[in-house]
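Input record, target 12 of the design panel.
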């Protein structure tokens, strides 16, 4: 995995959890708005909107760079519109990044061994 692809996945991962938190807070504030005098929906709506737009931009970039299948890309998008989906996306992206690092190390190790003897 090249550095730009790794960066795209990292950006998506870093915005997924805050986007999920903002979504949950927005849902809570929506309930509070209807049941009390407390109204933080406009402020949290704006924050969540910005985080969601960032998520979609980073998702598109990651999809373009990683060449995910349509199913994988759709899964990450669906997770963004579920209230706690961002947390699952973050964990899945973290595992994917760790697996790619392990694979890259294994390739380097394999390239360093020529005919059973280290080069």
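The sequence produced for target 12 reads:
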């Amino acid at each position: 995995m090249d550095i730009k692809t790794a960066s795209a996945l990292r950006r998506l991962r870093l915005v997924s959890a805050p986007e999920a938190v903002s979504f949950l807070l927005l849902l809570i504030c929506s309930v509070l708005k209807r049941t009390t005098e407390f109204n933080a929906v406009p402020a949290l709506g704006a924050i969540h909107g910005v985080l969601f737009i960032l998520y979609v931009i980073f998702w598109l970039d990651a999809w373009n760079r990683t060449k995910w299948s349509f199913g994988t890309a759709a899964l990450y998008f669906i997770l963004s519109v579920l209230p706690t989906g961002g947390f699952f996306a973050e964990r899945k992206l973290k595992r994917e990044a760790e697996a790619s690092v392990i694979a890259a190390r294994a390739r380097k190790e394999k390239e360093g061994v020529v005919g059973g003897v280290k080069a």
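The two ends are 23 Å apart (CA to CA).
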